[in-house]
């Protein structure tokens, strides 16, 4: 156990990996609600600008006033020299007077986002945890945490941070996540997928929420008028990853190009060559969730093994699917949906396509599902077997992160004509699969995506679609023509 109470020297903070909004530290401190970087060389280029790491964590609105209010101050994060830190929290350990610093052992994810984006399946899984995993996986593969796996465990003396064998690159097991601004209900989405995902993917992860953070803040602050107690305490995080949505939006990948916070983490690690382009890095999270949902062992694929480690970065290195499953998630039961006749014609066109294939002796399975009528396990199991995931723009498409990519895997997303958003498009491509945006009887795919737009009708219940166009698109994609 680390006990900085008796330590003569305080370990200084270092940043081991950083992208806007995503920062991995060793030896980060917190006192009275402020995160502290303790260093004797604050001007060192090792430290990114504070505004690229954190914010005030307030809910985000797109107004100049609100943008200004989210700029961090010295109350959010600050630098301290080791001498200043000692003056605030230090004792005299040689003479039996402890430093007032307590270590929070293991590793900690510090999520600084407002609940506004947490209680939404897409943002929680496909942004927050997708980015977290890309970042951690990339940091560990590239050895950003240390020159060699064995020296890190030796340096840390922490079982929770021993890396696995040299071959299996994995982030270490996650110890704890703290939702600084969200109460224990505020990170949960209504359908319950956030909790399902979290417990399935990370069964041992301990959670703290805003009340727990407040406890930690109070425990370190100086009580007003407390007479003889004039000094505060501090918490010490040996390893912490700070995630901040507003800071991510200050970066180019998220702020200017994709509006996806995870894009900052993913692009940094892709740039370092630390992530593959076909989602092998995400495979352990996906696999954990699929096993939890009860996917049969025979339906579990190990892409890393199938490509014999030849990640190659090429979706072409992926295998052809053994069985084709087309899953159409209909939204006819909820607010934003297709014109009913168009929905029926779409189903008819898909059925006809599958029948025609059958007459050619090829078996393609079609599943038309209304997600709300299925259990969570059933939904995840379907996604895990899907070759094509089809649906109107909406949260149900978040399940795409559980698809097991093959050479012909694709997401087909129907938008109100003229409308486009990058949520599922970016995520699909980050996993090495193709994405098609359908506008009635035309479609687009990377690199010819339209501009992001939310025209009138985008959220409505009269979205048109030309079924035969979609059926032909899917057939061509599955046959490898596109
Ligand atoms: C503790 O935090 C509060 C609120 O952020 C701030 O007003 C106060 O000045 C801080 N106290 C110290 C000793 O830094
Ligand atoms: C959708 O496409 C079909 C086929 O081209 C066309 O007949 C129909 O008018 C289109 N609908 C809309 C609303 O543009």
From TrEMBL:
<keyword id="KW-0325">Glycoprotein</keyword>
<protein>
    <recommendedName>
        <fullName>Glycosyltransferase 61 catalytic domain-containing protein</fullName>
    </recommendedName>
</protein>
<dbReference type="GO" id="GO:0016020">
    <property type="term" value="C:membrane"/>
</dbReference>
<dbReference type="GO" id="GO:0035269">
    <property type="term" value="P:protein O-linked glycosylation via mannose"/>
</dbReference>
<keyword id="KW-1133">Transmembrane helix</keyword>
<keyword id="KW-0328">Glycosyltransferase</keyword>
<dbReference type="Pfam" id="PF04577">
    <property type="entry name" value="Glyco_transf_61"/>
</dbReference>
<keyword id="KW-0812">Transmembrane</keyword>
<keyword id="KW-0808">Transferase</keyword>
<keyword id="KW-0472">Membrane</keyword>
<dbReference type="GO" id="GO:0097363">
    <property type="term" value="F:protein O-acetylglucosaminyltransferase activity"/>
</dbReference>
<dbReference type="InterPro" id="IPR007657">
    <property type="entry name" value="Glycosyltransferase_61"/>
</dbReference>
<dbReference type="InterPro" id="IPR049625">
    <property type="entry name" value="Glyco_transf_61_cat"/>
</dbReference>
<feature type="domain" description="Glycosyltransferase 61 catalytic">
    <location>
        <begin position="324"/>
        <end position="406"/>
    </location>
</feature>
<dbReference type="GO" id="GO:0005783">
    <property type="term" value="C:endoplasmic reticulum"/>
</dbReference>
């Amino acid at each position: 156990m680390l006990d900085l109470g008796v330590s003569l020297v305080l370990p200084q903070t270092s940043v081991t990996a950083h992208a806007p909004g995503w920062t991995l530290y060793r030896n980060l401190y917190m006192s009275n609600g402020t995160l502290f970087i303790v260093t004797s060389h604050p001007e060192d280029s090792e430290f990114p600008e504070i505004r690229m790491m954190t914010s005030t964590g307030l809910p985000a609105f797109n107004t100049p006033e609100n943008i200004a209010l989210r700029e961090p101050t010295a109350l959010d994060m600050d630098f301290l020299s080791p001498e200043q830190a000692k003056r605030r929290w230090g004792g005299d350990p040689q003479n039996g007077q402890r430093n007032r610093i307590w270590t929070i052992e293991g590793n900690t994810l510090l999520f600084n986002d407002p609940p506004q984006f947490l209680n939404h399946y897409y943002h929680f899984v496909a942004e927050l945890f997708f980015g977290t995993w890309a970042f951690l996986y990339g940091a560990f593969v590239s050895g950003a945490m240390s020159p060699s796996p064995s020296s890190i465990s030796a340096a840390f003396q922490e079982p929770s941070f021993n890396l696995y064998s040299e071959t299996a690159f994995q982030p270490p097991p996650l110890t704890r996540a703290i939702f600084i601004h969200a109460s224990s209900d505020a990170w949960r989405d209504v359908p319950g997928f956030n909790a399902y995902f979290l417990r399935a993917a990370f069964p041992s992860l301990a959670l703290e929420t805003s009340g727990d953070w407040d406890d930690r803040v109070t425990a370190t602050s100086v009580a007003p008028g407390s007479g003889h107690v004039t000094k505060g305490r501090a918490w010490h995080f040996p390893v912490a990853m700070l995630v901040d949505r507003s800071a991510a939006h200050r970066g180019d990948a998220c702020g200017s190009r994709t509006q996806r916070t995870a894009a900052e983490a993913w692009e940094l690690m892709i740039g370092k060559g630390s992530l593959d382009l076909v989602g092998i890095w995400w495979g352990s999270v996906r696999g954990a969730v699929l096993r939890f949902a009860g996917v049969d062992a025979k339906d579990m694929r190990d892409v890393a093994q199938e490509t014999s480690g030849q990640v190659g970065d090429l979706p072409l290195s992926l295998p052809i699917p053994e069985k084709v499953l087309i899953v159409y998630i209909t939204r006819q039961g909820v607010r934003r949906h297709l014109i009913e006749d168009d929905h029926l014609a779409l189903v008819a066109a898909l059925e006809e396509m599958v029948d025609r294939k059958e007459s050619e002796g090829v078996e393609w399975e079609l599943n038309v599902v209304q997600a709300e009528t299925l259990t969570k396990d059933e939904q995840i199991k379907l996604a895990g077997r899907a070759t094509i995931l089809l649906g109107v723009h909406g949260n149900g498409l978040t399940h795409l992160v559980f698809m097991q990519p093959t050479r012909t895997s694709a997401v087909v997303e129907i938008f109100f004509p003229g409308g486009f958003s990058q949520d599922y498009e970016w995520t699909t491509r980050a996993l090495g699969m193709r994405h098609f945006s359908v506008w009635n009887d035309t479609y687009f795919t990377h690199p010819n995506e339209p501009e992001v737009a939310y025209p009138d009708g985008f959220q409505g219940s009269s979205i048109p679609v030309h079924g035969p166009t979609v059926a032909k698109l899917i057939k061509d994609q599955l046959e490898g023509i596109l």
